[in-house]
Design brief:
This protein is α/β, with parallel strands linked by helices. The protein has nine helices and eleven strands. The chain has a domain of 56 residues. Helix content is 34%, strand content 28%. Strand 5 and strand 6 form a beta hairpin.
Length: 254
C-alpha cells in the first residue's frame, strides 16, 4: 500500500501556475529525492503534501485516509479538522532554516511537541529525546540554546525533533541550503544514517551526488511538472534534453 499518494495536483499563486499536474507515490520505507532547477515547484509540492499550502486541485492521500480530493467543480476539498490533525502525526518536516525556538534549550525543542501534542509522559519524551540527540552526535548539547550551536548542529536538532514524533515519512525541504559546504557534509551524513530506521523520506535537494547515492527513486521536476522519474541510474542517465541541461553543471561531481 502507498504511504503517500498525490494525484493531478495543481497549485497557483495569482497568475503564476507553480504545479501544473503532479502525480506521485511514496511507499513505506522508500527514499525519494526531488531534484530540479529553482522555481520548478519542488518546495511548493512538499508544502502541499504537508498541509502548509492548500492545493487548488488534486487528490492527497496518506495510507487509506483521503486528505483532500476534487469536488464536482474539480477543486480540492479537504477533510475535516479532526482528520487533518490525525494525518499530521504521520509525517515530520525538516525546514531549510531549522525553525528552532530560540528561547528553549535543545532538549525542550526536541521534546515539546511530543509532550504537548502527542501527550506522551515527559520522562518518556526526554528519554527518547536524549536517545535521538545521541544518534545525532549532540547528547552533550541537550542544555545548550540554538544560538550556541553551529548551523549544522541546529539542523541536526531539527532532524531529531522531527524524528521524536515517530513519523512514518520525513520530508526534507533543501535541508542543507542554509549551510556552508563543510556543514553540508555533516548533515548529509546524518540523513544517510537514517536509512537504518526504515522510515520513508522525501528529500528536496540540490546535492546531486547525495540524491544519486541515497535514493530508491528520483523525481526530476521542471516548470511545475515531473519530467523524469525512476531509479537513480535511470534518471541520471536520462537522455531527456531538459534533464541533461540541468545536470550539466553537476557533471564534475557525478
Amino acid at each position: 500500500m502507498n504511504l503517500l499518494e498525490m494525484q493531478h495536483v495543481k497549485k497557483s499563486f495569482g497568475d503564476l501556475q507553480v504545479l501544473r499536474d503532479i502525480s506521485l507515490t511514496v511507499q513505506d520505507g522508500e527514499i525519494v529525492s526531488i531534484i530540479g532547477p529553482s522555481g520548478s515547484g519542488k518546495s511548493t509540492l512538499l508544502r502541499c503534501a504537508t498541509l502548509l499550502e492548500t492545493m487548488d486541485a488534486g487528490m492527497l492521500k496518506y495510507e487509506d485516509t483521503v486528505v483532500a480530493d476534487n469536488d464536482a467543480n474539480g477543486k480540492s476539498v479537504y477533510a475535516d479538522k479532526k482528520t487533518l490533525q490525525k494525518i499530521k502525526q504521520v509525517y515530520g518536516l525538516v525546514f531549510q532554516q531549522f525553525n528552532l525556538f530560540p528561547h528553549w534549550n535543545v532538549l525542550r525543542n526536541v521534546t515539546d511537541a511530543v509532550i504537548h501534542v502527542q501527550k506522551r509522559p515527559k520522562a518518556e519524551a526526554e528519554k527518547t529525546g536524549m536517545e535521538l540527540l545521541d544518534k545525532m552526535g549532540l547528547a552533550d548539547k541537550a542544555e545548550y540554546y540554538p544560538y550556541q550551536l553551529s548551523g549544522g548542529q541546529q539542523q541536526r536538532v531539527a532532524i531529531a525533533r522531527a524524528l521524536a514524533l515517530n513519523p512514518k515519512v520525513l520530508f526534507f525541504d533543501e535541508p542543507t541550503s542554509a549551510l556552508d559546504p563543510e556543514l553540508t557534509g555533516e548533515v548529509l551524513k546524518v540523513i544517510r544514517s537514517l536509512k537504518d530506521l526504515h522510515i520513508a523520506m522525501v528529500i528536496v535537494t540540490h546535492e546531486m551526488a547525495f540524491a544519486r547515492d541515497i535514493s530508491d527513486k528520483v523525481i526530476f521536476m521542471a516548470d511545475g511538472v515531473i519530467v523524469e522519474e525512476g531509479n537513480a541510474e535511470e534518471v541520471f542517465n536520462s537522455e531527456n534534453e531538459r534533464m541533461q541541461s540541468f545536470l550539466g553543471r553537476y557533471k564534475s561531481i557525478l
